[in-house]
Amino acid sequence: MQKTKSYLSDTVSRLKPSGIRRFFDLAASMEGVISLGVGEPDFITPWGVREACILSLEQGYTSYTANAGLLELRKEISDYLLRRFRVSYDPADELIVTVGASQALDVSLRAIVNPGDEVIVVEPSFVSYAPLVSLAGGVPIPVQTSGTYQFKLQPEQIEQVVTPKTKALIICSPNNPTGTVLNAEELAQIAHIVAKHDLLVISDEIYAELCYDEQYTSFPAIAHMRERTILINGFSKGFAMTGWRLGFIAAPKDLATAMLKIHQYTMMCAPTMAQYAAIEALRNGADDVERMKKSYRQRRNFFVQSLNELGLSCHMPGGAFYAFPSIQSTAMTSEQFAERLLLEEKVAVVPGNVFGASGEGYIRCSYASSLEQLQEAIRRMKRFLERL
Ligand code: PMP
After folding, report:
1. Which domain holds residue 67?
2. pLDDT tens figures, 44-85
3. Do residues 39 and 52 both lie within one domain?
4. SS3 73
5. 115 Cα: distance to centroid of ligand 1 (angstroms)
6. Helix (H) or strand (E) holding 336
7. What is the phi/psi pair of residue 113, to 5°?
């Protein structure tokens, strides 16, 4: 055993397994659990999209595509980005179709990070960012946002951690796990600091379609930011296509060309049948996205109001499908709270500390669950809190 371990690289040995897994494994071993733990839509992919995939298989489109993805799909992505977010990318050499936003993040970081380069990660954050920075040979530098500001990054926080080694900043709006959305003005303030220190920005916009209260602003749409932004998006969340493993990168040509080298050697191309499905999603999926969004908004309103009524103070998240209530009134750590809630009332949530230090004192609840399940979860949480 010891001998086998000695084969591992130092980087991988140091990597900690995701804190979310432990709760999923525990919840999976129990019966009657209401899971508010998983970060994925509860909708099945719209039928038209599934049908387009089936048709592509019937037509025998089962070979590799171009490394960057089907040109037809890249053209659709280019039109979509312009139509929805007012950002313009050339399908010929500024777009790469990837295996989910996950691979897009990996490729982006590996293309820009030199050994020891620092990448600022705004926490609480999606659990993959810091490990992906480490795997790329960089050093993740966490910045802690605060519940006091609804977990919005304060631009001066960037200045407090910038060093000559800082290469990039990863932002995510709407955010996982907090649901926080940064508006145009807030992004412009970040842009100002980013330009001042000549940083690159990796903007993870995977939840851009799920923005409930205001018009979404894409980071490269902010003045002068396109040239220093790697835009990441995909089909998993807005189009309910998590299992298809399809995302994309949009970046200025020099960056995209470098990323394509990595993509071509490691992945060859994204799954062909999923690419045909994605063309249909972009051409005719807008009504389905709107329908799902309307449903999430309704569930968000119910769930967040109910949490506040229970005394678990929670800001109204502007996007994604997560509520991030404070459990500080219970005097438990978020791990203790999540574990007891699961064991005693069979409701699975994710302790906030797995998303970074400032997530301590909070839990992440996904409201991508039926209204009936959410109502039952609230009943159980009420009982749990009354017993404390
Ligand atoms: N970024 C964020 C913020 C996410 O929450 C997720 C999925 N949980 C991803 C990226 C990865 O998405 P994909 O399924 O496209 O790989």
Report:
1. 47-285
2. 999 999 999 999 999 999 999 999 999 999 999 999 999 999
3. no
4. helix
5. 25
6. helix 334-345
7. -90, 125
Taking the centre of ligand 1 as the mean of its atom positions, its distance from the CA of residue 206, in whole angstroms, is 6
pLDDT of the residue at 22: 75
Report how far ligand 1's centroid is from the alpha carbon of 205 (Å).
Answer: 9
State the CB neighbour count (10 A cutoff) for residue 288: 19
Are 200 and 330 part of one and the same domain?
no
Take atom 5 of ligand 1 and give the residue whose Cα is closest. Answer: 176
Nearest CA to ligand 1 atom 7: 39
Which residues touch 231 (CB under 8 Å, ≥6 apart)? 81, 87, 89, 203, 205, 218, 219, 220, 249, 250, 251
Distance 233 CA to ligand 1 centre (A): 9
Tell me how far the alpha carbon of residue 171 lies from the centroid of ligand 1, in angstroms: 13
Instruction: Give me ligand 1 centre to Cα 383, in Å.
Output: 33
Site residues for ligand 1, CB cut-off 6 Å:
39, 100-102, 126, 172, 176, 204, 206, 234, 236, 242, 247
Report d(CA 160, CA 189) in Å as an integer. 15
Q: How far is it, in rounded angstroms, from Cα 68 to Cα 65?
A: 8
Cis omega (within 30 of 0) for bond into 142: no
Q: What CATH number should be reported for the domain holding residue 355?
A: 3.90.1150.10
List phi, psi (to 5°) of 88.
-120, 125
- Beta carbons within 8 Å of 296's beta carbon, 6+ residues apart: 210, 212, 321, 367, 368
Residues near 132 by Cβ (< 8 Å), separated by ≥ 6? 105, 106, 109
245 and 135 fall within a common domain: yes
- Domains of the chain: total: 2
Residues 338, 274, single domain; the answer is no
> 130-150 pLDDT, tens per residue?
999 999 999 999 999 999 999
pLDDT at 21: 76
Task: Give the atom of ligand 1 at the shortest distance from the alpha carbon of 242.
Answer: 14
Which residue stretches of the chain have pLDDT < 70?
Answer: 1-2
- Nearest atom (ligand 1) to Cα of 125: 3
Transcribe 77-115 into DSSP letters.
HHHHHHHHH-----TTTSEEEESHHHHHHHHHHHHHPPT
* In a domain? residue 86: yes
153, 185: one domain: yes
